[in-house]
Amino acid sequence: MSSGKFLTFEGIEGAGKSTQIELLAEYLKDLEFKVVLTREPGGTALGEVLREILLDERQKNVVPMAELLLMAAARAQHIEEKIKPALESGKWVLCDRFNDSSIAYQGAGRGLGASHVQKLTELAFGSFVPDLTIVLDLEWKDGLRRATKNSKADRFEKEGAKFFGPVRDTFLSLSRKDSRYQVFDASSSVEAIQNELRLLIKSRFL
Ligand code: TMP
User: Fold this and answer.
1) SS3 sequence, 154-182?
2) Residue located nearest, by CA, to atom 5 of ligand 1
């Protein structure tokens, strides 16, 4: 059986990642591919427990390195328990955030530096990288407004310009360096983004 594809979706909160993932999954299922939708932090029983802790706004004293290590612990479990087995059985894995979020949020937002994140990544998962990373780019204020419209702000959503400015810039600068990334303007309509995304998938993989 051929191995599947690993697609990750990145961007600040409220950029519309989950909507685009769901629509793309429908498209791929119509083409008879087997698709797994998952997210980070999360995706496994352990990952979902860690997610609750990481997003809990009562956890005010989590230091940046502890935050990074918890993200990495969730990711290590996710890769071995869910992502690799799915890919090996020929499925497409669509993942809402992955390691690039650690580079952007912990590396830049929290100020740990990309090289710290990179060192940990090499130790924890070697060279396990996505086949394609979709970056949905949006002005951070617009994203936060969308993300907190119908729900209370989580621990990350309470941050401001000093945090989200570097997070957004990091996604964009990573994208300029490597053809694995494709940036989409997340202020466009859901349909326009999805159409472009489907064209991209077709031209790269089908
Ligand atoms: P989301 O599901 O709304 O994207 O929430 C997940 C939050 O966790 C979001 O604020 C980004 C943050 N995050 C990190 O800080 N580092 C990471 O490595 C990942 C995967 C997520």
Assistant:
1) CCCCCCCHHHHHHHHHHHHHHHHHCCCEE
2) 13
- State residue 1's pLDDT score: 47
Domains of the chain: 6-205 (3.40.50.300)
**Is residue 13 within 6 Å of ligand 1 at its C-beta?**
yes
- The pair of structure tokens assigned to 134 is 């979709």
Residue with tokens 């472009």: 196
Mutational pocket test of ligand 1: of 44, 97, 125, the residue with most ligand atoms within 8 Å of the beta carbon = 97
Instruction: Of 140, 132, 124, give the one whose Cα is nearest residue 187.
Output: 140
Any idea what DSSP says for residue 59?
-
Q: Name which of 106, 107, 97, 82 is nearest 134 in CA terms.
A: 97
Ligand 1 atom nearest 98 alpha carbon = 20
C-alpha 74 to ligand 1 mean position (Å): 11
Q: Rounded to the nearest 5°, which phi and psi values hold at 81?
A: -80, -35
Q: What is the pTM for the complete model shown? A: 0.97
Q: What is the distance in A from the centroid of ligand 1 to the CA of 96?
A: 9
Q: Which residue has the tokens 């310009």?
A: 161
Residues of the chain with pLDDT under 70: 1-2
